[in-house]
DUF4177 domain-containing protein
Amino acid sequence: MATKWEYATVPLIIHMTKAILDQWGSDGWELVQVVPGPGDGLVAYLKRPLEA
């Protein structure tokens, strides 16, 4: 059976990037990609398996 995923997009504040990603990671989220966001910002795309 294929894994089902849930996704999140998270704005990253440049001087707090590690803290933000560490918090999401501790909640079970896996970083998929970081892309440029509005202005000088970044946006992180994350995923984690749905609970069965």
In short: The mean pLDDT is 94. Residues 36 and 42 are 5 Å apart (CA to CA).
